[in-house]
Amino acid sequence: MKRESGSVLLISLVMLLILTVVGVASISGVSMTEKMTNNQRDYDIAFEMAEAALVQGERWIDDYDGGWNNGHLQSSCTGSTCWTQDCTNGLCFRGSYPSGSSALCEVDTSGTPVWNNESIWNSNSATYSESVAAVAPPKYLIEFLCYTPRDPTSYTEPPDYTSWVRIYRVTALAYGSHPETRIMLQSTYRVD
Fold first, then answer.
1. Strand, coil or helix: 108
2. In a domain, 2, yes or no
3. Domain of 136?
4. Residue 148 falls within a domain, yes or no?
5. Rounded to an integer, what is the distance from CA 41 to the centroid of its chain?
6. Parallel, antiparallel or unpaired: strands 126-127 and 106-107
7. What would the DSSP string read from start to end of 122-156?
8. Is residue 63 included in any domain, yes or no?
9. Which of 30, 35, 118, 121 would you call most buried, defined as having the most Cβ atoms within 10 angstroms of its Cβ?
10. pLDDT per residue over 77-116, tens digit each?
11. Which residues are paired to 188 by β-bridges?
12. pTM for this prediction
């Protein structure tokens, strides 16, 4: 018999090692792609829920604004439509609203914004009305930001508010199916 040197065995083992490395890298890539896809899906769901809560807040303003009453801004207000500093029922107003004077209201911008205050989100925000599969239901806050001229080039000073419109800021917060997925959206909403 001829003496064999075993080079075929060595080449086969090297080829098997290369195929194993390629296979493991491929599995790792597929696994990473699957994780990225799941994270993007979770983000998309949270974003859609935040948009839905934002729209619900804007619709609430549309329904409410026809019955606007500056008494809802006073500390003596009772009921579900009172605008408070701590955002009771998701309705926020930080500032001063003069009663019976010719001055406009003013927003207090000092301190932490209400939409950046975790305790307000946990205790006083309004909750989106539909149930969704998420860490927590979507929530929203509505801030009254006083008035702005309807037409900045032509308006009259208060107490004639006919040339002024109310401005609101709606902030929505939504989570995905993981606590790390959190989306916050804001809109500034003008009511004529």
1. coil
2. no
3. 7-191
4. yes
5. 17
6. unpaired
7. HHT-EE-SS--SSSS--EEEEEEEEEEESSTTS--
8. yes
9. 121
10. 888 899 999 899 999 999 887 765 556 788 888 888 999 9
11. 169
12. 0.79
Q: Residues 6 or more apart from 43 whose CB is under 8 A from it?
A: 176, 181, 183
Quote the number of domains for the chain. 1
- Residue 117 burial (C-beta neighbours within 10 Å; 0-12, 13-18, 19+): middle
Tokens 């439509």 map to which residue? 81
Dmax (CA) for the chain in angstroms is 116
User: Under the phi-then-psi rule, with left for phi > 0, alpha for psi from -120 to 50, and beta for the rest, what region is 67?
Assistant: alpha
Omega within 30 of 0 (cis) for the link into 159:
yes
Cβ atoms of 177 and 135 within 8 Å: the answer is: yes
How long is the chain?
192
Identify the H or E element spanning 58.
Answer: helix 7-65
Q: Would residue 91 count as lying in a domain?
A: yes
Compute φ and ψ for 168, nearest 5 degrees: -130, 155
Nearest to 35 by CA among 27, 46, 24: 27
